[in-house]
Each structure stands twice: as structure tokens, then as C-alpha cells.
Amino acid sequence: MDYDTLIYEQDDHVVTLTYNRPDQHNAVDRTMNRELHHAWQRFRDDDSAFVLVITGAGETTFCAGWDLADAAALTEPPDYEEFKRSIWSSPGECGYTRRVDVFKPVIAAVNGYAFAAGLETALLADIRVAAENAEFGALERRWNIVAGDGMTVRLPLVVGFARAMELIITGRRIDVREAERIGLVNEVVPEGQALGRAQELAHEIAELPQGAIRSDKESMVRGVGRTYEERLRIEAELTLSMFMRKDSHASGAAAFKEKRTPEWPHHGL
Q: Residue 148 region, left (φ>0) first, then alpha (ψ -120 to 50), else beta?
């Protein structure tokens, strides 16, 4: 697929996916939504792609959410049967937000506003690097639009139930320092440096053996909402993958024992 609203670039094992509608503050319209579904699955299924960095074009907006001009054109209610099929089949209305099948690391370079579905997009990442001018908020409150791309699911997991409830109910904007304080942001960098720092971190992660990273991320994701015992069983199940890898865990253990740097001809997979 050729993208009209995205830029998909790969440098070695790191993919950078840029939301590229700067004149619309990188808001997600129906065209971008379809392209995001393709781009995320492309990254997921590419054996040469290890880490994804997501960002927005320009230095003032990461993603301003759903394109309300595009949304305003949806005046007729959908057919009920079509709506039910969409709920079960669609990967999301503002991106790849209803799937939990990407177990490779994802980093968000938040270079400005991350509002509404833009905040939901940032929450898709495992690590959020934000510039000093970044702001966050569930601003869709103002237009009577519900959170439909994971806000009520992922935000409590990241910042806690009480803080998420307050942000979702009030719709207030928070600056990057408050976002860092409540755990929404992992690292703050000077304005204009979020993407560079995120890519630097992505390349560092890509140098690590990938098998254990993916297994542990999958364990955490699949364990959400399950009992303590179920989570331990999922973790134990996934540890079996270490015996099935081309680069066995024994290679790392032997290198540690022999006090040498391990070699990973298959990237730890």
C-alpha cells in the first residue's frame, strides 16, 4: 500500500511511523485510519523490523485526535448489523487501537499536542518520550465524543484508576511535567528532540536479543485483567519459548559464565 497520510521509514531494524497531516494537526481521518491498520500490521509481520517509533509531522503536534471535520460528514447512523461487524472486526476507528498482537517494542516520540485520540495513540506505546512543549488531555469531552480507541482501558493501566478517572471526566489539559509526574511520560527532552531521542533509544533496544523482550511484553499484555495465578501461568508458558529459539538462552548463560559478550546470530530469536 502507498500511504497518503503516513511516512513509513526503516533504518536497520528500527521503523519510524510518522502521522503526516500537519495542516490538520495530524488528526486521524478515515484515510489515515485505513493506512494505520496496514502500517501496524506491516511492522508486526516484518521479521526485519524490531522496534517501532511513532510520531507526528512537525514540532507542535503529535496527534490532535479524530479529524472532527471528517467526523462531521458521518451524519447518518450506521446499519446495526454493519455496526456489530465493525465492533468485532475493525482494528480501530483512529488507528490500530483494538488489537493487542504487537509484542515488539513501541516508542512514542510526543512532539507537541497529544489530545483525545492522540492521547490514545500515545498510550499504544510501551515507552513515551516527550518534548518540553508536549501536552496531553481527553479534550473530546468538549464535543460530547466518547473515548473509542482505548482511553478508558489503557490510561488507568498507565497512570492509575483515580488519576485516569479525573482526566477523563474533566477533560483538562496537562503539561509534560505533570504527565511525567503521574507516569504518563517516561522521559522529557528539550523541544525538537523527542524524535531523535526516541530513535536513539529504539536502536539501543534493537541491539538487544529480541526473543526475551517479546516474550516478556506478551506476558504483561496477556496478563492484564487476569488473576494472579493466571498471570503466573502465562509467564511460565511463555518461558518455554526460550527452549525453541534458534538463539537459545543457553548461549547467553554460557557467555555470562565465560565472562564474554554473547553472540546472537539470529538476534536472540
A: alpha
